Amino acid sequence: MMGLDDRIILKEIPFSSHFGRDYLELLLDTLPKSRKNDPSRPEWRPTPIIPLDLQPFGYTLVHIKDESDVRSNPTGTFKDRRAYENGPILFRAIAERAWSAHSEIDVPRLTDISMGNIAFAQAYMNERYGLPPPKLLLDSRTPPDKLQRLQQLRADIYLAPFDINVFTGKSEPYTAEQIRTLTNNSNGHDATSTRLLQPQRNWYDQHVHEAFNFFQRDGEIYVPHGSGDLFANYVTWQMITGLHGAAKKDIRLRVHPSVVASLDILGAMPSETKSNADKLTGHMPFTYYSANDILGLRQFGFTGQETGVYRIPEDYVAYAAEIMIQTGIKTEPSASIGLGLFMWRYDHGLIDKKKTVLIVNTGKGMLEI
């Protein structure tokens, strides 16, 4: 029978979860304030959008939104945006509440399941701002070279099988309680499974508005779909934009809401469970939008008629990464799979060549960081 003994504690860093007044004052002096309502001082430098002529490969012109640019994302992946929200922004809110209540508090540690990029992004962000080290649960089959890099992080690191739930012996995801147990965080919070922080609208909202503002007419946006966080941010902000209308649109939005509503958001997943796009086949704690929800968004005119999640064969996954790397874009199969979906649709005659195409490269591989 499997159990907690099948978990490996790779690294733990002593850190008190008690926030005294001196520490609260330090946080309030150093942590950034959220600037979502101040487009003159955006929280992020926009990642570049690069035209990519695919005619030599038998396709057409597309544009790549390149999240691997370290001038925007310090660790070279879009996960830095999530880490920022779950790091300094969250802890500043906690510190402000405690300070105004004239209290000292014990703050729950946060746990994340990671295939690598979240680990680096959250550890980097928390170390930069002097926050508690994140607790990270990784697959026990993580290759040794990656583990060697991960052990350098300022983080608590635990290993457990991802293909088998050690508590049930079944091939099923871990529950939030099980994730906390595996990471010695029984009184903490599982950030992987949380909806408390509204990840579907908060983690990548700036990125989404950067992408929306690129379009002047109908278009398609291709994004990787693993946990579904990024895809959910796109369609959530399409719906918010549609509900608010032109009079009350988000201050960061420079295009008309009708342009936003016309955009097709296409989430790409590998067909194979054992794919080179391994970051898209791991733990998926919940579904933000069901097929019925997506149908409703299309029916009500909040999103384009092609919006949805699509699976593609492994040869397209590999070829997309190869093309991006050949053209000088830092990526990995999990990050470039949106290009694979575009090429698959192109080869099957499903592309409207009148539409502008934006493909999100979510970042470079962990070992390149």
Description:
- By secondary structure, the chain is an alpha/beta fold.
- It has two domains: 139 residues, 3-Layer(aba) Sandwich (Rossmann fold), CATH 3.40.50.1100; 193 residues, 3-Layer(aba) Sandwich (Rossmann fold).
- It is built from twelve helices and 13 strands.
- The strands form three sheets. A six-stranded mixed sheet has the order 3-4-13-10-11-12. The chain has a five-stranded mixed sheet with strand order 1-8-7-6-9, with helices on one face.
- Helix 4 links the parallel strand 7 and strand 8.
- Helix 2 runs parallel beside helix 3 and helix 11 packs across helix 12.
- The longest helix has 22 residues.
- It is globular and about 60 Å long.
- The protein starts with 7 loop residues before the first strand and ends in an 8-residue tail after the last strand.
- The mean pLDDT is 92.
